Amino acid sequence: MTILDGKALSDKSKQQLKNEVETLKQKGLTPGLAVILVGLDPASQTYVNSKEKACEAIGIYSKKITMNEDISEEKLLETIKELNEDESIHGILVQLPLPKHIDSAKVLEAIIPQKDVDGFHEYNVGKLVTGNETFVPCTPLGVMKILEEYGINPVGLDACVVGRSNIVGKPMMNLLLNAGATVTITHSKTKDLKAHTLRADLLVVGIGRPNFITADMVKEGAVVIDVGINRLENGKLTGDVDFEEVSKKASFITPVPGGVGPMTIAMLLHNTVRAAKFAKGSC
Ligand code: NAP
Q: Which of 51, 115, 145, 219 is catalytic?
């Protein structure tokens, strides 16, 4: 069994991006990312701060915009419009979830697709579905990079994705399908989940249920990717897969922490650098 070391791959990707940013800066192009945070949700604050730090570490200009919980939707849309027109900003990210009085879909659609480094705009979602080059949501993109790094070719594999969110499951399904896997996507209404997971050569799980996937649900020799991040009462982080038991059956498996998680931020940086290069027509 091989542990898929997302942390090491993330460090390697960030180093490569740092070098690339240095070269771009010498040509007069500094990639810029704007991150909008509405309200004081502690988890969102932590995510935004780590995105800001990661940008600084590789030389990307980052602009953090914090707004009060009771900000109007109109004001938020106005800010996005300004950022769409700001030439120093190549990527715009709105930290989710937004307060209930704001229509998240409307906000995500307001970001121009060329700056949509999260890949949530319907235009970019459509391009992913049709198998065209586009900005891909960072977490499933990180999963694809892990597979590539370890020489795991999805062509012809039976893949099962557990979870159908717009952020994880659905883009994951499309990426694997585009890469030549035969994909089954499952969710909370799936009749016999185990029948599907047991058939999978490649199992990707993102549901937010600690240790939900047990060894009896996994095929011998399967590649297992755990996207889940769950904080237990004792403060420990754990995934959606029972790592200890499943790792005895899997050929490759991601740990939590240190698997998919670190790749998400690395892919955000990757998308931002790509957006900057597109903007300058150098890519
Ligand atoms: P989400 O929007 O809540 O979606 C959860 C999905 O799991 C839904 O499709 C749901 O089905 C499905 N599900 C829930 N219980 C299930 C069950 N018992 N059997 C089968 N399917 C079930 O969550 P998300 O945003 O996709 O996140 C999922 C997990 O990934 C969370 O732990 C989150 O923290 C983690 N995550 C990690 C990263 C990272 O960087 N590594 C990034 C994003 C998310 P229905 O659609 O039928 O309700």
A: 51
Answer yes or no: is pLDDT of 276 > 60: yes
Residue located nearest, by CA, to atom 22 of ligand 1: 188
Q: Both 149 and 103 in a single domain?
A: no
| Cβ-Cβ contacts under 8 Å for 72 (sequence gap 6 or more) | none
The pLDDT assigned to 229 comes to 96
Q: Tell me how far apart the alpha carbons of residues 172 and 174 are, in angstroms, rounded to a whole number.
A: 5
In-domain check, residue 268 = no
Question: Alpha-carbon distance 54 to 137, whole Å?
Answer: 17
Residues 69 and 108 in one domain: yes
CB 258 less than 6 A from any atom of ligand 1? no
* pLDDT for 280: 84
In a domain, 38, yes or no: yes
Query: Is 79 within the bounds of a domain?
Result: yes
Q: Scanning the structure block, which residue is given the tokens 């240190």? A: 258
Give the residue, by CA position, lying nearest to ligand 1 atom 47. Answer: 188
Residue 125 clears pLDDT 80, i.e. is over it: yes
Rounded to 5°, the CA angle 85-281-117 comes to 55
- For 209, the domain range is 138-260
Q: Are residues 99 and 150 in the same domain?
A: no
- Closest ligand 1 atom, residue 240 Cα: 32
- Answer whether 35's CB lies under 8 Å from 65's CB: yes
Confidence band for 282, pLDDT divided at 50, 70 and 90: low
At 241 the pLDDT is 98
* Cβ–ligand 1 contact at 189 (below 6 Å): yes
Mean pLDDT for the chain overall: 97
| pTM for the predicted model, two decimal places | 0.97
Distance 64 CA to ligand 1 centre (A): 27
> Residue with the nearest Cα to atom 12 of ligand 1?
163
Same structural domain, 149 and 216: yes
Q: Are residues 181 and 108 in the same domain?
A: no
Using the structure block, give the residue that is written with the tokens 């120093």.
Answer: 88
CA of 163 to the centre of ligand 1 (A): 5
| CATH label of the domain that carries residue 96 | 3.40.50.10860
